[in-house]
Design a protein that fits this description.
- This protein is of the alpha/beta class.
- Helix content is 32%, strand content 25%.
- The strands form four sheets. The protein has a nine-stranded mixed sheet with strand order 2-1-3-4-9-8-7-5-6, with helices on both faces. It has a four-stranded parallel sheet with strand order 12-11-10-13, sandwiched between helices. Strands 16, 17, 18 and 19 form a four-stranded mixed sheet that branches.
- The chain is globular.
- It starts with a strand and ends in a 13-residue tail after the last strand.
- Bound molecules: xanthosine-5'-monophosphate.
- The site of xanthosine-5'-monophosphate has 11 residues, from loops.
- Xanthosine-5'-monophosphate (XMP) binds next to loops.
Length: 521
């Protein structure tokens, strides 16, 4: 068990992941759990502190998420944020009221109690981010008001004796100027955490835990070449070596040389000791995709075929393998707003890339091994580097499961795959050379299904048009086209037309998302 841990209780707040991030930035490990956890369970987890998230409810609503008084009596420091602060006031006998209008956005907070441990070294006046309608009108017995804003009489309150703290504003968002300091004061000051949560410690500890759990059993992992499954493989290989079986299904829709790279690292002669099988299923996928040009149909064909191929390989290991492993990461686990639906995403219909019926039929354990389950993407990357996974793999941009199929508009043929692979390799190489790749969210070449007339030398051509796309995005939900310097685009255009057979035009996609998507299909 990790020694130093903060428990974040989720009351439906949209910023819970942000809270977790900030806590980890203080060097302290934390986990998000549903607010329905009993005080007894929380005690059993031995947290150094508890944070209540915000949430969209009012404490007066009939089914509003709540908590018992006993949570405040564990002797563990508690920090309530937004709804969490109102709930603390409500449960402990203070008074919460509903304001006639909501307070939303930035506000200036004034510190009233400079001696507050939570507000230590916080400026007398600073900007905070507010988002609430209810407010604390009267603090519970034993509490005092430590700050206020023009509209909010209790911007923060505390009972330093019982170590209970609450803030109406959101310290986790960057608009709250002193937010990071406030969270630091809580976890490092009030909770007394040392802040030695590091990726090296995580890797070591996880390897030990995996060894303990797995014992002499064997584990099967589907490797996609993506960061998450790659780092999962690295961790498991360090933990159990040859008891790990990795199956890499090459569907023929990877980027240039990608399949070979995965094989070089994990196959014979690579730096990881494990059993590695590459299934060259290119022909099989191409055959199924022949004549298909509808985007959804193409996706479905790949989505159905993949587990079939993987299942056939898995079948060869039935009787030998006990566990399936999976590269689930934290954002996959914590998706829902109210905490109650967490875990639904990958757990029930699909275990380690196989439908649950197949898992049962083959006699594998129904609970997958997911060593990265509690990590954010950048943490996964840091673990990868710790374990010696090459930088190129660790910092790969996201790549869709159906691969180049969503970057080839219309029917897929092996020739088109080759065109897009070559053009993409050139585009990535040139952006890297020009040093403009660092700030891009995603960038790649795609292939339109447009044929047009051109002229090369003395010949008329009737070739395909490559589409170059580079977007700026932080969350992949929205994106805008990046302004790639014209001279860089020109170099790409010249090289692609000269070096990639069958292409006579290069287009740059300037659409944003929405209304466009990042991928073309
Ligand atoms: P769109 O094209 O929807 O893409 O704007 C948003 C992000 O999701 C990735 N993407 C996928 N990832 N399977 C995946 O694993 C898919 O089917 C898929 N489709 C899109 C895309 O690369 C971008 O990062």
């Amino acid at each position: 068990m990790r020694e130093e841990k903060i428990i974040i209780l989720d009351f439906g707040g949209q910023y819970k992941q942000l809270i977790a991030r900030r806590v980890r930035e203080c060097g302290v490990y934390c986990e998000i759990h549903s607010h329905t956890l009993t005080a007894e369970k929380v005690r059993g987890m031995k947290p150094a502190g508890i944070i209540f998230t915000g949430g969209p409810n009012s404490v007066f609503a009939k089914d509003a998420p709540s908590c018992g008084r006993d949570l405040f009596e564990l002797g563990v420091p508690v920090l309530g944020i937004c709804y969490g602060s109102q709930l603390m006031a409500h449960v402990l006998g203070g008074e919460v009221k509903t304001a006639p209008t909501s307070e939303y956005g930035q506000a200036v907070v004034t510190v009233d109690e400079e001696a507050s441990p939570l507000l230590k070294d916080v400026r007398k006046e600073s900007t905070v981010w507010m988002s609430h309608t209810d407010y604390i009108a009267r603090v519970p017995e034993g509490f005092k008001v430590t700050s206020h804003t023009a509209k909010c009489p209790v911007a923060s309150m505390e009972d330093a004796v019982r170590r209970l703290y609450a803030v109406q504003f959101h310290p986790e968002v960057l608009h709250t100027e002193e937010g990071t300091k406030i969270l630091y004061n809580f976890v490092r000051g009030i909770c007394g955490c040392r802040g030695d949560w590091q990726m090296s410690a995580f890797a070591e500890e996880t390897i030990r835990e995996l060894r303990e759990k797995i014992g002499d059993d064997h584990v099967l992992l589907g490797l996609s070449g993506g960061v998450d499954s790659t780092v999962t493989a690295a961790l498991l290989s360090r933990a159990i070596g040859k008891q790990l079986h990795c199956v890499f299904v090459d569907h023929g829709l990877m980027r240039k040389n990608e399949g070979d790279e995965v094989e070089r690292i994990f196959g014979e002669g690579g730096s990881f000791r494990l059993n590695f099988t590459r299934v060259n299923a290119q022909e099989r996928f191409y055959r199924k995709l022949t004549g298909q040009s509808d985007p959804e149909t193409k996706r479905k064909i790949i989505g159905d075929e993949f587990p079939r191929v993987f299942g056939e390989e898995a079948g060869k290991l039935a009787g030998k393998v006990r566990y399936l492993a999976q590269g689930t990461i934290y954002p996959d686990v914590v998706e829902s707003g109210d905490g109650s639906k967490s875990d639904v995403i990958k757990s029930h219909h699909n275990v380690g890339g196989l439908p649950i019926e197949v898992v049962r039929e083959l006699g594998f354990d129904e609970t997958p091994i997911e060593p990265l389950r509690m990590l954010f993407k950048d943490e996964v990357r840091r673990v990868g580097l710790e374990l010696g996974v090459p930088k190129e793999l660790v910092y790969r941009q996201p790549f869709p499961g159906p691969g180049l199929a969503v970057r080839i508009v219309g029917e897929i043929t092996p020739h088109k795959v080759q065109i897009v692979q070559e053009a993409d390799a050139i585009f990535r190489e040139e952006l890297h050379k020009a040093g403009v790749d660092k700030d891009l969210g995603q960038y790649f070449a795609a292939l339109s299904n447009m044929r047009s007339v051109g002229v090369m030398g003395d010949h008329r051509t009737y070739g395909l048009a490559v589409v170059l796309r580079a977007v700026l995005t932080s969350d992949f939900m929205t994106a805008e086209a990046a302004e790639i310097p014209w001279d860089v685009l020109k170099i790409c255009m010249t090289r692609i037309i000269n070096e990639v057979e069958g292409v006579n035009r290069v287009l740059y996609d300037i659409s944003s998302k929405p209304p466009g998507t990042i991928e073309l299909e």
